[in-house]
Design goal:
six-stranded antiparallel sheet, membrane, SH3 type barrels, 12 helices, alpha+beta, 6 strands, LptG/LptF_permease
Length: 353
């Protein structure tokens, strides 16, 4: 790497670091203020802080494109305001060469973001979900929200949370008898033993016998269910909390079962194309620095970066949701706003030479 590349790249990199720090700090503060009302004896402030800390990696990955845009605007804008970019261009360095130097650190960061999305954030998000969803366990209450419903062997099963080790948390099994309800089993845990064999632990059973209701408690109860732990874990997670490999695995399973896998395909392509999105936004930032924002103040550049970032994110969400609603490929829905950014940025740069 030449001294020129290091100089441009370090300016963009430090600006990116400052922007991502501010974005994560604001997100942390606003989320804490919003969630602090949920704090009680079983879900303490310490547990809330743990949840926010575990969600930091996925937030970092999500903010990389916008932080790349604003960081490039600030980094190159600072050089433009001191006429350093003018001097560089006067020596015969073309805009594309400056853009190449600015893109190097951003592409590296975006690849790191893909690595975080694949190897770090899924495990951290799982821990955050377990803490958040199971906050009512100490009070002995079950909440039928935030989990997953499935039908297995004629029973309707609700699972509040699951982990990669084959452990299910807060299970409720509703056993019907024709149009009536025969019994309900509530278990704190269900552990996979082998094949279709599970073990329910800390089980409360309620039997409906027509003229009376009987309730009993058992430490363990055998449970036969044709359920795969890996599929249960993936089904209990939000698509954005899964890694690329898990998204690919689960969308293949859903497609094989002739079920709608659109949400998982959309999230897969959104994460896969993140480096290209960062690159496209850097091109837009570069064209803006040499174009309409050439003589703008730092505040103006930040405001413009936020505005462009919001427009890009809304466009990504719009075309992504349109792909699901109109049944065309989510890859196209994700690629359209990225391609538009590329086209606009390259067009503006070509006019500036």
């Amino acid at each position: 790497m030449s001294r020129f590349d290091r100089y441009i790249g370090s300016s963009v990199l430090w600006s990116f670091a400052a922007v991502i720090f501010v974005l994560l700090g604001l997100d942390f503060a606003l989320t804490f203020i919003d969630q602090v009302k949920k704090v009680n004896d079983s879900y303490t402030t310490n547990a809330l802080l743990q949840v926010l800390a575990y969600r930091a990696p996925i937030k970092f990955a999500e903010y990389i494109p916008v932080a790349s845009l604003i960081g490039t605007l600030i980094g190159l804008g600072a050089l433009a305001s001191t006429s350093e970019l003018t001097v560089i261009r006067a020596t015969g360095v073309p805009i594309w060469r400056i853009g190449f130097a600015a893109c190097k650190p951003i592409l590296l960061i975006s690849l790191i973001g893909v690595g975080i999305s694949e190897y770090v954030s899924p495990y951290a998000t799982q821990q955050a979900d377990l803490i958040e969803r199971l906050r009512g366990q100490s009070e002995g209450r079950f909440a039928l929200t935030g989990g997953v419903w499935i039908k297995s062997d004629g029973n309707f099963v609700y699972i509040n949370a699951a982990d990669r080790e084959g452990v299910l948390y807060d299970i409720q099994i509703f056993t019907p008898n024709g149009q009536a309800l025969e019994k309900i089993q509530k278990a704190k845990f269900a552990r996979h033993l082998s094949d279709n064999q599970w073990r329910l632990e800390q089980v409360t059973e309620t039997h409906f016998l027509g003229d009376r209701i009987e309730t009993g408690y058992k430490e363990t109860v055998p449970w036969t269910a044709s359920l795969k732990p890996s599929h249960l874990f993936l089904a209990s997670q939000e698509p954005e909390a899964l890694s690329l490999s898990e998204l690919h695995q689960y969308q293949s399973y859903l497609t094989g079962q002739e079920l709608n896998a659109g949400l998982y395909q959309l999230e897969f392509w959104t994460k896969s194309l993140m480096p290209f999105a960062c690159f496209a936004l850097v091109i837009v930032a570069l064209s803006s620095v040499f174009g309409p924002l050439r003589s703008s103040t730092m505040g103006g550049r930040i405001f413009s970066g936020v505005l462009i970032g919001i427009m890009f994110q809304n466009g990504l969400n719009l075309f992504g949701k349109m792909s699901l609603a109109l049944s065309f490929s989510p890859l196209i829905g994700v690629a359209i706003p990225i391609a538009l950014c590329f086209a606009i940025g390259l067009l503006l740069m070509s006019r500036k030479g």
